[in-house]
Structures are given as structure tokens and as C-alpha cells.
Design goal:
Length: 428
């Protein structure tokens, strides 16, 4: 057989131990915070029926699917997001569950994206969702989880902010300017592009969606940098705008009461690309605005019934590990990774090996991490290995000590040595 070399596929990552430790650090913070808010962890299969995503997720994600026909002639796709799977799982089970349902998950997701900073073809995404509660308190609770997830990792209001908006408010404003329901998706798409496209292009798109000429400037200005106040000034008094604004303000007030006000900004340019959102939506960004979104989410009250389940309101978010990892590294919040074991056992002569194995296994049974040389090596080499493995303690078994039923323990931090009875170690 001829040798062949392989490289990693573009957009995928290897996780050598130091990178895996960083990932585990992020996951641990996510799990800790989710549990603090009473969420239970779930998972689903990484491969789903292609139909689950077509229409439900929206064009952008469908264009990025890893999809193929399996050997049983089924059209399948690697999951690009978790929300459709959650809806499918709950369609089967929700009737038996007490509401609201609080579930979280950390799936690996796959999207065939154009590779760029913060965007890969796989990522892990913390999904936190509340299902079965339509009130704005659930929206606030979910955003509080996202914010606390980042705080748990050492980030504060100087590092990131949540930009919040509401599709119902946007709809009310847009329909007051002449947009018919059929043009709403196009109008949302135009607003979604507002930060990336020239003003004139966005203006033309909005006009195409039905925004009347007399309102065009006010709409553009509002969505470029307007908050709740600006919306009230420009569009207050128009049908439904005031009541939608009041709900968004209540949401912000709840987050303020939780002490999280410094993280939250109303920003009506946030629309979210996914098709299923129906209410409050939000995205978390680094303060400098140099990275892509760390997290995105919102309310999606129609999705469960669309996959054949109970008609349950739902709200949640997805937070990816890629942009977050970059931000943590940038802010010096990535933990150092040190090798380390509790004990390294050194034998002076192979005659001690069987005693050493007994001691090693007794220590492991008691919960300590233990290493020893797997082959006959000089004492000097064994000590070197103990050092490079980061052993906190070295236990030396020599013939004289063994005859007396003891071994010598050296604390590698202080260099201090003491004799310990082997029976004491074996007793744990
Ligand atoms: P999303 O905005 O598509 O939402 O993704 C959420 C987050 O996942 C993004 O803000 C980003 O951090 C990360 N992410 C997405 N795509 C990539 C990628 N190609 N590479 C690296 N990171 C990425 C959703 O997926 C919704 N299902 C979230 C949700 C849950 N809404 C309600 N519940």
C-alpha cells in the first residue's frame, strides 16, 4: 500500500487536548448556568430528514445544508441548527410534559458556509429554549440565561451587549408605511441587510416591499440607529405600534429588574435571518463590533404546530462556540492548560513492579490520577517523565523500603520527602 497524506477538511476543527480543555471550559459554564435556571439537558440525532429544514429554517440555511440521499433512498441532512429537531422531539412528547418546558442542549451543527472569521462548517451551539409560555417574562428569562452564560465565562458589559428587537413591532411599523403581509418577508430581509448594504440599495428594496415614499427616510433612519424612543417619535400613534412598543419596553424593564440592564439595547435593525421567528428577537455582539454575532434567538410561536405538534409558543437562543472562543481569547479569558496527574510511581528495579501495580490501582480506585512507566526504565528517566507529566507527587518504591513495607513520597512542589506505609496507601 502506498502512503497517502490527509489534511483536515476546510471549516472543520481538530481538538487536541488544550483545545478540548478550552471547549470543555465553555461547555461547563453553559451547563452550570442552564442548570441554575432549571433547564434540563437533551439531545437528538445529528442526521435528520431533509424536509425538516426546507421552509422551516429559511433559504439561507437550506442553501448551506450538508444533504445527501442515504442508502435507503431517504433525503437526509446533517443538522444545521437544533430548533427544528427540538420542535420535532416535542411534537411527540410535549403533551405529557408539564409546562413551561425548559430544555437545553449543546449539539454540534453543520453548515456549508463560506469560510470567514468566526464562521466554520461545524460548530457547537448552546441551545436554550422555553416552550409553552407566551408571556414576555419567558423572553426575558431566556435572554438572562444567555447573558449569564457569558458572565460565567468572565465577560461583562464592557465586553458584549444584547441588541433586542421585536418582529411584531417591526411589522406594525412597516404595515403602517404600506407594506402588505405578502411583502413583509422582503421588508425584513431589507432591514436585515441594513448594516451590510448601501443606503440606496436598502431604500430600493424597501420600496419594492411596499414602503411608501413619504415614510422611506423615517424607516431607514429608524432601522439604521433607532431605539424605542425614536420609534415612538416617528411612528407612535399608528395602529398597533404603541402596544408592541409597550411590550418591548416591559421586556427591557424585566431585564433591568434582574440587574442586567447594562447589557441590553433596543436596536430595531435586528430582524434575524431564520424564517420561524414571530416576536421578540435578539443578538449578542462583542462591544467593539469587530466580530460576528456570538448568539442569536427569539420567539417562534408557530414552529411546533408546523411540525405536527401541539400549538405551543416558544422562545430560545443558540450561542456558538466559535465567535465566543475568539472573544474569550481576545480578552485574555481563555484558561491556561496544564498537564497534571496526582501521583507518578517510580520503581527502583523491576522486582518492585508488582507491588507498584497494586499500589497504583489502589490509588486509582480511591480517585487519584496515577501514572507509571510502562517499561523498564532508569530511575532518572522515570523522574523526568514524572516532571513532564506534571505529577504533584512521586512515590518511589525501592528494594530496601519495600522490605520494610514503606515507600518514599516526594512532594514535587516543595521537594520534601517522607516515608509512607504501603498499607496506608492501599487503604485509600
Ligand atoms: P443562528 O443565528 O443561525 O440561530 O445561530 C446562532 C449562533 O450560532 C450564531 O450567533 C453564531 O454564534 C453561531 N453560528 C451559527 N452558524 C455558525 C457557523 N457557521 N460557524 C460558527 N458559528 C456559527 C440558530 O441557529 C437558531 N436555531 C437559534 C435558536 C434557538 N433560536 C431559538 N432557539
Amino acid at each position: 500500500m502506498t502512503a497517502q497524506s490527509f489534511s483536515r477538511l476546510p471549516g472543520f476543527r481538530d481538538f487536541p487536548p488544550e483545545d478540548l480543555a478550552f471547549r470543555a471550559h465553555i461547555f461547563e459554564a453553559w451547563r452550570t448556568v442552564a442548570r441554575r435556571y432549571g433547564f434540563q439537558e437533551y439531545d437528538g440525532p445529528p442526521l435528520e430528514a431533509l424536509d425538516l429544514y426546507v421552509e422551516k429554517s429559511g433559504e439561507e440555511i437550506v442553501g448551506q445544508l450538508y444533504a445527501f440521499t442515504d442508502k435507503g433512498d431517504r433525503e437526509v441532512a446533517l443538522r444545521p441548527e437544533m430548533t427544528p429537531s427540538l420542535a420535532r422531539i416535542l411534537a411527540e412528547r410535549s403533551r405529557a410534559l408539564p409546562k413551561p418546558i425548559r430544555w437545553f442542549s449543546i449539539p454540534q451543527l453543520f453548515r456549508y458556509e463560506r469560510q470567514q472569521r468566526g464562521r466554520l462548517r461545524e460548530h457547537f451551539q448552546w441551545n436554550v429554549d422555553i416552550v409553552g409560555e407566551e408571556g414576555v417574562a419567558a423572553d426575558a428569562e431566556v435572554l438572562a440565561v444567555a447573558i449569564d452564560g457569558l458572565r460565567e465565562l468572565g465577560l461583562g458589559p464592557e465586553d458584549f451587549r444584547a441588541r433586542v428587537s421585536d418582529r411584531r413591532l417591526l411589522s406594525a411599523i412597516l404595515s403602517s408605511t404600506g407594506v402588505e403581509p405578502a411583502g413583509m418577508d422582503d421588508a425584513f430581509a431589507a432591514i436585515d441587510k441594513i448594516e451590510r448594504e448601501p443606503r440606496e440599495r436598502v431604500r430600493a428594496r424597501l420600496a419594492g416591499a411596499g414602503v411608501g415614499e413619504s415614510d422611506a427616510d423615517a424607516v431607514l433612519t429608524l432601522f439604521q440607529d433607532g431605539g424605542a424612543e425614536a420609534a415612538r417619535e416617528a411612528f407612535g400613534g399608528r395602529e398597533a405600534v404603541d402596544s408592541e412598543l409597550a411590550r418591548l419596553e416591559e421586556y427591557v424593564a424585566i431585564l433591568g429588574a434582574m440587574g442586567l440592564g447594562a447589557f441590553v439595547e433596543v436596536d430595531l435593525a435586528i430582524v434575524r435571518g431564520l424564517a420561524y421567528y414571530t416576536g421578540i428577537v435578539f443578538e449578542l455582539f462583542d462591544r467593539l463590533g469587530s466580530l460576528r454575532a456570538i448568539c442569536g434567538g427569539g420567539r417562534y410561536d408557530r414552529l411546533l404546530e408546523r411540525v405536527g405538534g401541539e400549538a405551543l409558543p416558544a422562545v430560545g437562543f443558540g450561542m456558538g462556540d466559535v465567535v465566543l472562543g475568539e472573544l474569550l481569547r481576545e480578552r485574555g479569558r481563555a484558561p491556561g492548560h496544564a498537564r497534571g496527574v496526582d501521583d507518578y510511581l517510580v520503581v527502583i528495579g523491576e522486582a518492585q513492579r508488582s507491588v507498584m501495580l497494586r499500589v497504583a490501582h489502589a490509588l486509582r480506585s480511591s480517585g487519584r490520577s496515577v501514572l507509571y512507566s510502562l517499561k523498564d526504565q532508569s530511575v532518572r528517566k522515570q523522574f523526568k517523565a514524572a516532571e513532564s507529566e506534571g505529577a504533584a507527587r512521586v512515590l518511589v518504591l525501592g528494594p530496601d523500603e519495600a522490605a520494610r513495607g514503606v515507600l518514599v513520597a516526594r512532594d514535587m512542589g516543595t521537594g520534601l520527602e517522607e516515608e509512607i506505609a504501603i498499607t496506608a496507601l492501599e487503604a485509600g
